[in-house]
Design goal:
Blueprint (H helix, E strand, L loop, with lengths): L2 H28 L6 H19 L3 H8 L7 H19 L2 H24 L2 H23 L4 H6 L8 H24 L12 H14 L9 E3 L5 E4 L2 E6 L6 H20 L15 H15 L3 H15 L7 H8 L16 H17 L4 H16 L25 H20 L3 H5 L5 H10 L9 H9 L6 H14 L3
Parallel strand pairs: 1-3
Antiparallel strand pairs: 2-3
Helix pairs in contact: 1-2, 1-3, 2-5, 5-6, 8-20, 9-10, 10-11, 11-16, 12-13, 14-15, 14-16, 16-20
Family: Belongs to the peptidase M32 family.
Cofactor: Zn(2+)
Protein name: Metal-dependent carboxypeptidase
Length: 491
């Protein structure tokens, strides 16, 4: 075999092992016995040790040196770009540190879940301090004298810098706050009332998954405390959750995770088990989940169709017509939980976390002061106080599993989704008529063709620019939100 063939065969095995490690995480979140957590931590650490050893294998630079990159096509060159980047980053992190992070974050997940259930910040604080110390050590190794937070952000959004995001988010925050205050002063839509059987919710939610193009022959829908999508290629799984008083939580969590899953399922199969065979960044990933959930799933056209499906499933549930249902689905409500937030206020939740985790990583905020800092910022941003830790600093799983640098990609994904929605509606003028029939095929096909199939071939911002014809900007998102909620609330 040529040096390129040898390298790609080696990389294929590495990617396959990474998928196995990911499946351990899926199992931990869904069906693993709670008492197995300490052993699972050892298993995850062992897998991370194997993966780290492969990522820093000394044969990789030897293969790279032997390959004539100019003779490769753009796909081959992109494969080498990502392999070279992964090897360089992994080589900066000692193997013992990588294994220790895997062990501690696996165990921390269970400790966080128990602390959240008990509303006991003190029970989680020492573990969180350990995670932060380990991730800061990793960040310092990766930064090699540069900005630690930028180095961590680069894991999730290659090429992004915190200062650039801060400027973008700084443009979002005042406009979102202004619009929210206007909405809160207006007459609110009614709320959904009644009880909705959990099994019936799950039946309808699986229908919604396939309506948005999720291939159940290569996936499955399970329940978890925190909905997520896992895997890539031919095995992409999602989770959701049910609340008998709030079926929208189930339905829109599912549509959101289907956006992630369809991205992975839609990648060109020629990239299977290669560095290009997964979503290029978490920001682009989030753009898919948010456009599925919001611009498509919460549109007036699609909610009209969903109203009929809910009447078929639950009978008369007290909502008189499609327009009322649309207003209920898009109701702006006070609340504490990011994942349950309406799309107008969602980004304010993310910006809070972005600022706090940057302070934690910089050492400007200590774990012992985190709850107070969270509560103060939340009250300043939302106008009311956090009532308990599970609705505040303990609500998210991300910090327990070491995902520092991940949160800003949620808002960046919303920005990308705003850009993509503008281009989609330009290219598919009959979109609303199709959505009103429950037909998402042209919309999801457009996203598959312009975004999903490329996997990791293009850099994140380049991918969005190619898809839309414009550089990413917060302007389309703000325009969409202003128009939608000004109309809904007669502002």
């Amino acid at each position: 075999m040529s040096a390129f063939d040898e390298l790609m065969a080696f990389q294929r095995e590495t990617e396959a092992l990474a998928q196995v490690a990911g499946r351990l995480g899926w199992d931990q979140e869904t069906v693993m016995p709670r008492g197995a957590a300490p052993q699972r931590g050892e298993e995850m650490a062992a897998m991370e040790g194997v993966l780290h050893a492969r990522r820093v294998d000394p044969r990789i630079p030897e293969w790279l040196d032997r390959i004539d990159e100019a003779a490769l096509n753009p796909v081959g060159q992109a494969q080498l770009r990502d392999i070279r980047r992964s090897h360089a980053r992994s080589s900066k992190v000692p193997a013992a540190l990588a294994a220790r992070i895997a062990r501690v974050t696996s165990e921390a997940q269970g400790i966080w879940a128990e602390a959240r259930a008990a509303d006991d910040v003190a029970a989680f604080a020492p573990t969180l301090a350990d995670v932060i110390a380990l991730k800061r050590e990793e960040g310092q190794a990766l930064a090699a004298g540069g900005d630690v937070y930028d180095a961590m952000l680069d894991d999730y959004e290659p090429g992004a810098r915190a200062a650039e995001l801060e400027a973008m988010f700084g443009a979002l925050r005042p406009e979102l706050t202004r619009l929210r205050e206007a909405v809160r002063a207006a007459e609110a839509p009614p709320v959904l009332e009644g009880r909705f059987d959990a099994e019936t919710q799950m039946k309808l939610t699986r229908q919604l998954a396939t309506t948005f193009g999720y291939d159940m022959s290569m996936g499955r829908v399970d329940k978890a405390v925190h909905p997520f999508s896992s895997g890539s290629g031919l095995d992409v799984r999602i989770t959701t959750r049910t609340n008998e008083l709030d079926p929208f939580n189930c339905f829109y969590s599912t549509i959101h995770e289907v956006g992630h899953a369809c991205y992975e399922q839609g990648i060109d199969k020629d990239y299977l088990l290669t560095p290009l065979g997964a979503g290029v960044s978490m920001g682009v990933h989030e753009s898919q989940s948010r456009i599925y959930e919001n611009q498509l799933g919460r549109s007036r056209a699609f909610t009209g169709w969903l109203y009929g499906q809910m009447r078929d499933a639950f009978g008369d549930f007290g909502v008189v017509d499609e327009e009322t249902f649309y207003r209920i689905v898009n109701r702006v409500s006070d609340g504490y939980i990011r994942t349950e937030a309406d799309e107008l206020q969602y980004n304010l939740h993310v910006l809070l976390r972005f600022d706090l985790e940057r302070a934690l990583m910089a050492g400007d905020l200590q774990v012992g002061d985190l709850e107070a800092a969270w509560n103060d910022r939340f009250e300043a941003d939302f106008g009311y106080a956090v009532d308990r830790p599970s609705n505040g600093v303990l609500q998210d799983v991300h910090w327990s599993v070491g995902l520092f640098g991940y949160f800003p990609t949620y808002s960046l994904g919303n920005v990308y989704a705003g850009c993509l929605n503008t281009a989609l509606r330009r290219d598919v003028p009959e979109l609303d008529a199709q959505l009103a029939q429950g037909d998402t095929s042209e919309a999801t096909g457009w996203l598959r063709e312009n975004v999903q199939r490329h996997g990791g071939l293009y850099a994140p911002r380049d991918l969005i620019t190619r898809a839309t014809g414009e550089q990413p900007s917060e302007a389309p998102l703000l325009s969409y939100l202003t128009e939608k909620f000004s109309t809904l609330y007669a502002l």
